[in-house]
């Protein structure tokens, strides 16, 4: 990580400078708010006393983000040897790394073994046997599912009893359980309670078999659940004090920490064929889209703030028009907004989107040869700079 790429200013100051001076860079700009990540982390810890946060690097793997997570003491939930290698290179101890992908390559298991990363997630006898053959000292976390629709996880009723018996019979180390709550919906709290009840039942089954080292419960997919409901659900479970509870965070720390500054590259005014004086729609083509900062599977719901490229051209008009916003590629599915009301913009004007810090960057590609978004990391707080080992300039 090159710490010279971190600017000692707030995102607001950096944005104001871009809006004032414009940008000759053809790439869109992502403004990374390191202070926001630190604030999100501090708030999470205050609201989740006794719980241990882990971060999935696949959400946002920018080197500065990962470095800050490491300095904050967050654990890492890794899905591959590459992610484990990155965490280790940032000084994260092996004890704070979990290898959570339930399907592992031989090479990745051997990598974990070589670097003493012992906590590995499994969900079948086949995977357990593969891991045990290559890495007999591994400490396994058994992943179970709540519904058939989930890709990973054993069935707690049909599969888990046999898996636990197999683990006991072969002297395999089972260190804990792992469960992911299905995608957010109106029944999230009920799903959490069901998952915790199932976890308690599995702990009791393991204890009855003499598996006494099962001392960790990892839970993912709970970010949309209020902290009070999460805390009370876990407290009411009545697990032994020897069991530590890990919460795998996803968007929470990073989604709100990135702001996209995109610019209008072209536009097309679509008129009514029967009444050409009437404007049906204004189509805007910007320099970022579904292959860049935006998640391709998730609709954009927050309207952008719009700014003139040059304030000398006067303020934006008050009248708004039915508009659509499109990404730069030739793909007709590269659409940001199919329908949104915007004032009439000109080439070079800016659209600023908040909360684009999750998944867009890790999934971005240079489809059609368009550049990836340029990341500018910002921190206006001395405490954040101190965490990263950056000296304040006089």
From TrEMBL:
Residues passing through the membrane, by range: none
Pfam families, per the entry: Orn_Arg_deC_N (PF02784), Orn_DAP_Arg_deC (PF00278)
Cofactor or coenzyme needed: pyridoxal 5'-phosphate
GO BP: putrescine biosynthetic process from arginine, via ornithine
A GO molecular-function descriptor: ornithine decarboxylase activity
Keywords tagged on the record: Lyase, Pyridoxal phosphate
Keyword Cytoplasm: no
Domain of life: Eukaryota
InterPro entries, per database record: Ala_racemase/Decarboxylase_C, De-COase2_C, De-COase2_N, Orn/DAP/Arg_de-COase, Orn_de-COase, PLP-binding_barrel
Domain Orn/DAP/Arg decarboxylase 2 C-terminal: 224-357
GO cellular component assignments: cytoplasm
Orn/DAP/Arg decarboxylase 2 N-terminal domain: residues covered: 34-213
Protein family according to the UniProt entry: Belongs to the Orn/Lys/Arg decarboxylase class-II family.
Full protein name: Orn/DAP/Arg decarboxylase 2 N-terminal domain-containing protein
């Amino acid at each position: 990580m090159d710490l010279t790429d971190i600017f000692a200013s707030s995102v607001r100051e950096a944005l104001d400078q871009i809006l004032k001076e414009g940008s000759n860079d053809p790439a869109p700009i992502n403004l990374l708010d390191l202070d926001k990540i630190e604030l999100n982390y501090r708030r999470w810890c205050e609201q989740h006393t006794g719980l241990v946060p882990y971060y999935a690097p696949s959400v946002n793997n920018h080197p500065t983000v990962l470095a800050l997570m490491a300095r904050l003491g967050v654990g890492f939930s890794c899905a591959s040897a590459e992610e484990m290698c990155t965490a280790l290179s940032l000084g994260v101890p092996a004890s704070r790394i979990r290898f959570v992908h339930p399907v592992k390559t031989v090479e990745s298991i051997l990598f974990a073994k070589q670097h003493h990363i012992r906590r590995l997630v499994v969900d079948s006898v086949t995977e357990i046997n593969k891991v045990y053959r290559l890495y007999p000292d591994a400490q396994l976390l058994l992943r179970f599912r709540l519904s058939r629709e989930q890709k990973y996880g054993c069935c707690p009723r049909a599969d888990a009893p046999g898996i636990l018996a197999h683990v006991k019979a072969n002297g395999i180390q089972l260190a804990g359980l792992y469960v992911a709550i299905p995608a957010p919906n109106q029944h999230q709290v009920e799903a959490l309670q069901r998952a915790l009840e199932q976890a308690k039942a599995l702990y009791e089954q393991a204890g009855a078999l003499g598996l006494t080292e099962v001392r960790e419960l990892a839970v993912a997919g709970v970010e949309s659940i209020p902290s009070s409901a999460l805390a009370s659900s876990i407290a009411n479970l009545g697990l032994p004090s020897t069991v530590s509870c890990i919460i795998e965070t996803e968007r929470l720390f990073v989604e709100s920490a990135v702001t996209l500054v995109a610019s209008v590259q072209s536009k097309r005014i679509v008129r009514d064929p029967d009444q050409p004086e009437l404007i049906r729609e204004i189509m805007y083509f910007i320099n970022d889209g579904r292959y860049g900062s935006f998640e391709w599977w998730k609709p954009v719901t927050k309207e952008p703030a719009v700014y003139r490229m040059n304030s000398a051209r006067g303020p934006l008009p008050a009248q708004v028009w039915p508009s659509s916003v499109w990404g730069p590629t030739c793909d007709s599915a590269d659409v940001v907004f199919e329908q949104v009301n915007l004032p009439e913009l000109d080439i070079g004007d800016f659209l600023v989107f908040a909360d684009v810090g999750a998944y867009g960057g890790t999934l971005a590609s240079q489809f059609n040869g368009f550049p990836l978004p340029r990341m500018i990391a910002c921190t206006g707080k001395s405490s954040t700079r101190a965490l990263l080992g950056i000296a304040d300039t006089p």
